[in-house]
Amino acid sequence: MSVEIVELSLQVKNKTYLTPHYLRVYLEGENIKEIENSTIGVNNKICIPPKGVDQIYFPRLDDSHSKWIYPPKEVCPVIRTYTHKGVDFTKNEIWIDFVVHGTEGIASSWAQNAKEGDRLGVLMVKDSIELYKRTENYVLIGDSTAIPVISSILKDLPEEAKGVCIIEVFTENDIQTLETNASIEFKWIFNENPHDGSELYNTVKEIQLPKENKLAYIAAEYTTVKNLRHYLRKQLLWNVDEVNAYSYWKIGASEDKSEVQRRKEHE
């Protein structure tokens, strides 16, 4: 089944630091209304143009919708997977949150240096997609990169839902207020050096998890996700449809190499 992809050629409107390590970039464009049915929290692709290129040359899917065709190297953008955090159709505006910790990442570096008027391309699925399975008890687990998707889930949960949300950020100053109507217990853990490893796995093992009508949604670093999925599926014997696990990056791997390895692991 093919999906329709919307190409958004956007410009930086402004940006603001939500916390010391979390930067929100506001982007505007004329065709924002084309994504009015898109699901907030679903991954999209951002396209960062090469230096000196003031136009977005988008990759396109082939006729079978199975393979990307890229533009010539000199104008081909750097493509990264992100999640738009919100949209305002009255202002023709979306915003994307970037984790900033040094300038080693291409997307993070772009966000820190972006100026008003700078261009960014966004590829987004046009239609609505189910972000998570509806149930009664939720275990939401993630690092800083997962806050956009986890906050989208939290905001969507009904009042009768309950659960726990465990998020690892750099410092206490990086805690954000995440809106929800559900009965959620928040556990924030702190790790100034996520590239040295995570405490998410050990934290989850120490808490009591729901026994039935449950869903775990995990989004974090490759090894952490792999260990947590193994713990829930193999040790606690959760069913496959009770564990949604996505690795967003990998320690010691470049962004491009990490994406290939993570895709294979997910499959």
Describe the structure.
It is a single chain. The mean pLDDT is 91. The chain is of the alpha/beta class and 267 residues long. The chain is globular, with a radius of gyration of 19 Å. The longest helix is centred in the last third of the chain and has 14 residues, at 222-235. The strands form three sheets. The protein has a six-stranded antiparallel barrel. A five-stranded parallel sheet has the order 11-10-9-12-13, sandwiched between helices. It is built from five helices and 13 strands. The protein is 19% helix and 36% strand. α4 links the parallel β12 and β13 (243-249).
Order of strands, widest sheet: 1-2-7-6-3-8
Distance between the termini: 18 Å
The helical percent reads 10-25%
Tell me the structural class: alpha/beta
Strand portion: 35-45%
Number of helices: 5
Rg computed from alpha carbons, rounded to a whole number of angstroms: 19 Å
* Element pattern in H and E: EEEEEEEHEEHEEHEHEH
Coarse morphology: globular
Mean pLDDT: 91
The beta-strand count equals: 13
Largest sheet: 6 strands, antiparallel, barrel
Low-pLDDT runs: none
